[in-house]
Amino acid sequence: VQLQASGGGLVQAGGSLRLSCAASGNIFSINAMGWYRQARGKQREFVARITRDYITDYADSVKGRFAISRDNAKSTMSLQMNRLKPEDTAVYYCGAGRSITPADYWGQGTLVTVSS
After folding, report:
1. What pLDDT does 108 receive?
2. Which of 3, 15, 49, 75 could form a disulfide with 107 if both were Cys (CB 3.0 to 4.6 A apart)?
């Protein structure tokens, strides 16, 4: 499975960005897709995930601000990020997994920078 992430950039606090991730290869093995992020000097952390059956889960820090979605027919996933905060600044990684944990396959990171 190969994952291609896109959509990062620079935005002011309070603004919005949309990240996308496209999967290719043995996509029938994928259950969950999701996003993790890693800020400078910190460990990678879970952001959001969505299963093949569209069950979603979010980190407490992004609940109510971020929305994850998925198109199984197109093998794509998106993360709509609203009301962004400077603490959301990080490299965001697209992940996918055979189970409900989207961590078997990884895409390249995409940088999100939120200025105050």
Report:
1. 93
2. 3
Q: Is 12 exposed, middle or buried (0-12, 13-18, 19+ CB in 10 A)?
A: exposed
Helix (H, G, I), strand (E, B) or coil at 74: coil
Tokens found for residue 38: 């890693």
C-alpha to C-alpha distances, 78 to 17, 109, 116, nearest whole angstrom: 10, 14, 25
For residue 67, give the H/E element and its range: strand 66-71
50 neighbors 77 (Cβ within 8 angstroms): yes
Tokens 């189970």 sit on residue: 99
Phi/psi at 88 (5° precision): -80, -5
pLDDT in tens, 84-101: 999 999 999 999 999 999
